[in-house]
Amino acid sequence: MNTRSSTHTGRFLNQQLSRRNVLQMGGGVMGGLGLSQLLEAQSRSGKANDSHSNPAVIFIWLPGGPPHMETYDMKPNAPVEYRGEFRPIQTNVSGIEVCELLPFHSKIADKFTLIRSCHHEFADHGGGHKRFLTGRKPKTPTGFVNDAPMVGSIAAKFHAEKASTTDLENYVVLGNGRVNNVDTFSFGSAYLGSETHPFRISADPNADQFRIQNLALTGGLFEERLNDRIGLMRGMDSLRKKIENQDLGRSIDRFNDRALGMITSKAARTAFDLSQENDSLRDRYGRHEWGQRALLSRRLVEAGVPWVTVVMENPYVSGIRMPLYGTYNWDSHAVNCHLFKDSVIRLPLYDQVITALIEDLYDRGLDRRVLLVVTGEFGRTPRLNSQTGTQTKISQPGRDHWPRAMSLLVSGGGMQTGQVVGATNEKGEEPRQRPLTPNDLWASVYQHLGVNPEKSYLDRSGRPMPILPFGKAIKELAPVS
Question: Which domain holds residue 44?
């Protein structure tokens, strides 16, 4: 448990801070010690970038399923009804190609690894989310409510058991308002309990007055309106006084305890303050929700958060208008979008954000401590199909769900990079070399975090459930000594 916040246990009002009354944390008014100073102090203590004592994961989730044949596994020699409109370009690593809409990727392929042979059997979004994110075959092939914990909750449980002394949360999710419900993307913790749910932040970090409006404390805390709205520090001071002057004589829910430590923490206020970053770096990430959330994820892991999930769903935000042929997520059915026209806008934004994050991690010496994983729940059908678009009312090309083949990107973690793991057949239909499952990926992620995948937790019926029922760490991703 968070040592700092646990000292407050049993000293809260038996009231609740409702979602409509939550403390608003503003990026523009965050004061205190600068992140660079915090990191300098950590460095002097020998803990800043120690990959063994402080490993972290940034998990970029692309819900809907990105098209592997328009991104990382192009098939220029396949029949026209398979290969699509775009062409591959060579990267700075001989033999590795990516889509022509990913020129930034092509310049830094030596800093990431592409996995082209991941696959599973669940073609529905709900089943695909649950299968990929839990490392288990779900009991039902549809629906988004987990019957097993999402991997982020496993990591949160592991770090809670380590009795970390950081004031920061150990599991944070950044995304639009849809992340506020843990079941929207199958982020639920199932039998691990709500104390391992992610700390969810849905505010737009690109907004001039960035405020974290969903720092709600659940399950029996405050029920009052914070009347003093003049500034963050006065709000924090008011909350601290209430904490310090009341004694319930009883303990509170662990999630509330951790959340309270988060919102009263100087380190947290500093980590969320994007104004401390150079304008040039913010521009490099992109002045939109995707870009600034990615930058925020780097600040959070750098400040000590061990797991940050960033949901990159809708690119048409922060002033980017959605055309009729576009769609809000990666679900590129022909009825939803014109696959190629949508990609012309979506993929350059994605290219900018992902490569900025990779370069930033390397530039700041975080490439051994932090493991970056970028993926969706499945790929798209290799064979194109055309249907009448719901918005455009005309026939347009798209691809449907396809779990039998998908591509994902990994970087950092001290691993060997500049490589491709696995391959699909000539039409991108299924693995023909090095077939892998999501469990193999998670075995590698757990290895990075120091989590024993054979460790068990009790489910709701009291049965011991191993963290990972099967799967082996991908040897190509082993850390380089």
Answer: 3-477
How is residue 382 written in tokens? Answer: 């290799």
Low-confidence ranges of the chain (pLDDT < 70): 1-52, 163-166, 212-264
Stated as kind and residue range, the H or E segment containing 15 is: none
| Tally of domains in the chain | 1
On the CB side of 157, how many CA atoms lie within 13 Å of its CA? 23
Residue-level pLDDT at 441? 98
Instruction: Indicate the residue type of 210.
Output: F
Structure tokens at 203: 């505010």
- pTM here is 0.84
The contacts of residue 287 (CB under 8 Å, 6+ apart) are: 206, 318
Alpha carbon 203 to its chain centroid, in Å, reads: 15
Predicted pLDDT of residue 168: 81
**CA 34 to chain CA centroid, nearest Å:** 25
174, 158, 195, 186: which is closest to 55 by C-alpha?
A: 158
Which string of DSSP letters, residue by residue, matches 124-185? SHHHHHHHHHHSS--SSSS-S--SS--HHHHHHHHHHHTT---SS-S-EEE-SGGGGSTTTT
pLDDT of residue 23: 32
CATH number for the domain that contains residue 426: 3.40.720
pLDDT at 239: 53
